[in-house]
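We were asked to recover a plausible sequence for a given structure. The inputs and outputs are reproduced exactly as logged, with field labels preserved.

PROBLEM: sequence recovery
POSITIONS: 517
GIVEN STRUCTURE:
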């Protein structure tokens, strides 16, 4: 038997001179021996193991990793994914690592090994349901259940039972909900005791590889197209679920509103006045949005009409667009994003567009231009808060405020410093939060000399960032750290809301709404 352990590495490092490759993804809860199983498949003994494994209540594997092994004329590619603690409350980081594991198995895994530790429980069902949720029903055709604690299946008088008999009993005792899921995997299951002797484990690995080859013969491998379709279905499910929950919540709120209206008819007039005031304020903010000229600034930098502009209450730009020029022997790429507070776009849509713009600016943007008409508005403040939430607090070090109505300054015969006001003005305080970096342009100017002058000033502001930070652009490391912090904060907030939110607080919220508090 030829079985040589290979070191960890990228998939591309092992593509040459391979007769046949079998790609395997390990999935399971924390503490079930998932990484130890990966080491067994790789033929590892106690020393020089590719995957770190230890008894722990928290996941030892924090990110998806892969290792390789030459085995009986084929190459085994084993991907170990991050363990999770609860299938009902997975955070985005763990899901992202599962998807990363899929990427490491490019062009697609032949098998998903579902790691369990004994008799069937709701957790086993949850893992299979999770797999189906992330990768779709097609993934179940590539699943094998691996039980890593054989002793947990055996009773005191079961010493003479074979593995096949133990597996039959495992499924016979399983609830119908599990059987419904495993219909598509034909009850594929194997016992591999990680603590068994090396030779015994190798026999089990041979059986496992044969099972995977059978799956490959019947179904091929799980493809990227299958994953794309599953992801679309999941997003649609999430959207439908959010809408259902929101509809249910609105129904409950409406029922409580009816009760309060019966008790408080005299407050109807105050409610109408409040709604009218809100509409007036919303209209005022929409008028301010018309005048920002964000896309016009992009066209000014480029020197030609690339981005669509126009007057209106909503944003003309619906998705990220980019274009590049060469100015003074420097390559300049401008990326225009949708209006952040456009009422026709959700915060999720805008967050996705901003994330796309970041990748468009790979390896990282040198500056974030916060475009404003010149007046201080809460929208400008919210823009900075939105940026910090998406890209982390360090993003302010790369922000520059650009006022697109320099013609107003000229009409008032004011310098930019005079226009910003003293240290107590709201606009000055906002600029100070961005490191005091601010410039003004007339985004509608047709004068080419004026354009070149203003572009030179803007590049000078960007160069000052480099001299101060000693790094020329916002790096991917900063972005990943911000994304991780945001995911953790969102999970904490969701847990807090689930814990604290109840009918009484909904009632209090509606009462305050009617009372005008």
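RECOVERED SEQUENCE:
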């Amino acid at each position: 038997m030829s079985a040589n352990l290979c070191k960890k590495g990228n998939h591309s490092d092992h593509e040459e001179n391979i007769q046949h490759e079998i790609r395997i993804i390990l999935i399971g809860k924390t503490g079930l021996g998932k990484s130890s199983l990966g080491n067994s498949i790789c033929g590892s003994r106690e020393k020089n193991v590719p995957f770190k494994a230890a008894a722990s209540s928290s996941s030892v594997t924090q990110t998806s990793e892969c290792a390789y092994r030459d085995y009986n004329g084929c190459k085994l590619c084993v991907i170990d994914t991050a363990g999770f603690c609860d299938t009902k409350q997975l955070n985005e980081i763990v899901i992202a690592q599962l998807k990363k594991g899929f990427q490491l198995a490019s062009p697609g895994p032949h098998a998903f090994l579902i790691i369990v530790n004994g008799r069937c429980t709701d957790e086993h069902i949850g893992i299979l349901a999770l797999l189906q949720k992330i990768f779709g029903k097609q993934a179940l055709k590539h699943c094998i259940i691996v039980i890593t604690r054989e002793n947990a299946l055996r009773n005191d008088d079961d010493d003479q039972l074979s593995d096949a008999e133990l597996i039959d009993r495992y499924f016979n005792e399983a609830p119908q909900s599990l059987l419904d899921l495993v219909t598509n995997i034909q009850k594929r299951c194997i016992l591999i005791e990680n603590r068994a002797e090396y030779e015994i484990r190798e026999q089990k690995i041979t059986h496992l590889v044969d099972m995977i080859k059978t799956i490959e013969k019947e179904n091929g491998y799980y493809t990227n197209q299958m994953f794309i379709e599953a992801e679309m279905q999941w997003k649609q499910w999430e959207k439908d679920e959010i809408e259902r929950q929101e509809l249910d919540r609105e129904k409950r709120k409406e029922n409580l509103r009816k009760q309060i209206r019966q008790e408080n008819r005299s407050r109807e007039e105050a409610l109408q006045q409040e709604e009218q005031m809100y509409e007036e304020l919303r209209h005022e903010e929409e008028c301010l949005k018309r005048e920002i000229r964000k896309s016009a600034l992009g066209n000014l930098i480029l020197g030609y009409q690339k981005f669509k502009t126009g007057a209106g209450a909503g944003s003309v730009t619906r998705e990220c667009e980019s274009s590049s020029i060469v100015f003074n022997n420097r390559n300049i790429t401008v990326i225009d994003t949708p209006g952040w507070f456009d009422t026709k776009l959700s915060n999720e849509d805008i967050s996705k567009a901003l994330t796309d713009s970041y990748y468009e600016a790979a390896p990282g943007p040198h500056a974030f231009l916060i475009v404003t008409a010149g007046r201080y508005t809460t929208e400008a403040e919210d823009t900075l808060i939105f940026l910090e939430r998406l890209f982390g607090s360090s993003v302010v070090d790369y922000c520059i405020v650009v006022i697109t109505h320099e013609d107003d300054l000229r009409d008032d015969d004011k310098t930019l410093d005079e226009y910003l006001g003293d240290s107590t003005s709201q606009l000055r305080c906002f600029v100070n939060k961005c490191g005091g970096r601010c410039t003004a342009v007339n985004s509608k100017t047709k004068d080419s000399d004026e354009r070149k002058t203003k572009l030179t000033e803007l590049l000078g502001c960007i160069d000052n960032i480099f001299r101060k930070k000693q790094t020329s652009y916002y790096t991917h490391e900063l972005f990943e750290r911000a994304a991780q912090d945001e995911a953790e904060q969102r999970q904490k907030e969701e847990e807090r809301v689930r814990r604290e939110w109840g009918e009484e607080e909904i009632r209090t919220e509606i009462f305050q709404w009617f009372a005008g508090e």
